[in-house]
Amino acid sequence: MQGEQFYNQVGGDRITDRQIDELVGLARGIAADGMINQAEVEFLQKWLAANMAISDQPMVRRLYQRVNLILADGIADPEECRDLLDTLNSFSNRDFELGEVMKATTLPLCDPAPALTFRDRRYCFTGTFNFGQRKECQAAVTGRGGECGSLTRSTDVLVIGMYATESWKHSSFGTKIMKAVDLRESGVPIAIVSEAWWAGHL
Questions:
Q1: Which of 146, 133, 148, 155 shows the shortest CA–CA distance to 202?
Q2: pTM, whole model, 2 decimals?
Q3: Which residues contact 58 (CB under 8 A, 6 or more apart)?
Q4: 3-state SS assignment for residue 63
Q5: 64-85 residue pLDDT tens
Q6: pLDDT tens track for 19-34
């Protein structure tokens, strides 16, 4: 055991590099057909679990936590799979490191950001969230008297998850952001805010 610990300490950087290369290859393979299924999510979870013991790499740890959240109820639903697909595509293209917060200036956020209330207000969420799975974000709103649903003209607030890439316009949630911008520019009073701003009002 002591020898293994010594090897991990001395060769930690080399192990981490190999793990990241393997994970990039795995992410590309899973995302290659443009969809993710239950078996692939479970396979990714097993790979991450097997590699957690020899790496304190934040990227690996955070992705593992996210996959565990997806499978917490035993089911990777379509929306969760779409979010994970965006994450894996970004990761495999090395657009960002998991945990990197997207610069606010690259997003069409309201400036200044408005004060947020919840009772009788309708929220929509898009992207990948540090707060938790989307259903947890929605529960935080409904528990405060608000409503959640798809993006429509009656949506009061669109919240964008903090984990994203510079190429957000080409992600699956980019079309929702652009639709919100179009609504706002047409006079619909919809607020577009970051996850951090939203969370600060909880």
A1: 146
A2: 0.56
A3: 97, 98, 99
A4: helix
A5: 888 888 898 899 988 888 888 8
A6: 777 888 888 888 888 8
